[in-house]
Design goal:
alpha+beta
Length: 40
């Protein structure tokens, strides 16, 4: 999918592959649970 704006966020795994993509309007603090789950 095309990147619509430069504030699109990507969660990348330790293997360098895309885990999840977030919309530009997603606030960074909304990503906390996703990031913590990936670190477990």
């Amino acid at each position: 999918e095309r990147i619509k704006w430069n504030f699109t966020k990507f969660l990348i795994g330790q293997d360098g592959k895309l885990v999840k993509r977030f919309a530009p309007l997603t606030k960074p603090e909304e990503l906390t649970d996703e990031i913590e789950a990936l670190l477990r």
